[in-house]
Amino acid sequence: MVKKPEFQSLLTHSSKLAFDFAKKYVSNNLPNEFRYTVQLNVSQDDPNLKQFDIYPSDNEKVIELITNIEIVDLLCRNDKVPVWIDISVDCVYKTFTVFRLLCAGRYSSDDNEFYYSKNGTGPFGIKSPTLSPEYIDGAKFKLKTKNKNSFFSWLTSS
């Protein structure tokens, strides 16, 4: 069973790890306040998989610029969470560092099902920011700063 406080702690820990990891790649001054953009059921899992809870209505659902508390409320369902959640710094928006969370569609309460539990991050896998096509190994690059009007169209085109 996954309790919300435990999941909140894993989210906080994983966000800090992804934040520190991104600093190795980006030249931006990343704000210390965080928001999240979540893509649900990226794996488009088969609803016939009976060992997991699967929500087909989540297919292609994107929720933007939400808080860590909203993440916990969104992803903790029936004391279960996605078995993997890839987390990476995505962009800077106003005074926030925005993380992208790509989520599996399979929900479980079994720690053994979580892809990254051996890393101490439960379902969270720490990923680098999306590297630009011009990325040069070892060189830092600048994340784009987004405004509200361009945020969603940019997110869905990347």
How do the strands and helices of this protein lay out in sequence?
Elements: H1 4-23, E1 33-39, E2 53-54, E3 62-66, H2 68-75, E4 81-82, E5 85-93, E6 96-103, E7 106-108, E8 124-126, E9 145-146, H3 148-157
Parallel strand pairs: 1-6, 5-8, 5-9
Antiparallel strand pairs: 1-3, 2-7, 4-7, 5-6
Helix pairs in contact: 1-2
DSSP helical segment count:
3
Describe the global form: globular
Using the CA coordinates, give the radius of gyration. 16 Å
Q: Secondary-structure element order, as H and E?
A: HEEEHEEEEEEH
Main β-sheet, in a few words?
A: 6 strands, mixed
- Domain unit count: 1
Indicate the percent of residues in helices.
Answer: 10-25%
| Fraction in beta strands | 25-35%
Mean pLDDT: 90
Enumerate the spans where pLDDT stays under 50 for 5 or more consecutive residues: 153-158
**Structural class assignment:** alpha/beta
Concise synopsis of the structure shown:
This protein has one domain.
